[in-house]
Design a protein that fits this description.
Length: about 50
């Protein structure tokens, strides 16, 4: 049930990270604060489809 998802920066809209998520256990979309190399700062990244 693991599915590959992409994480997109909320400020510059670049897709920087990929990770996996178990859709059976985690129903809501993932929001993670990660470093964006384009913005050069820590920004919230939201889940998008792969």
């Amino acid at each position: 049930m693991q599915e590959i998802i992409l994480l997109q920066c909320t400020s510059c809209k670049n897709k920087n990270y990929s990770t996996t998520k178990n859709k059976k256990n985690v129903k809501e979309k993932l929001n993670v604060k990660k470093y964006c190399k384009h913005c050069r700062q820590h920004v919230i990244h939201k889940e998008t489809k792969a």
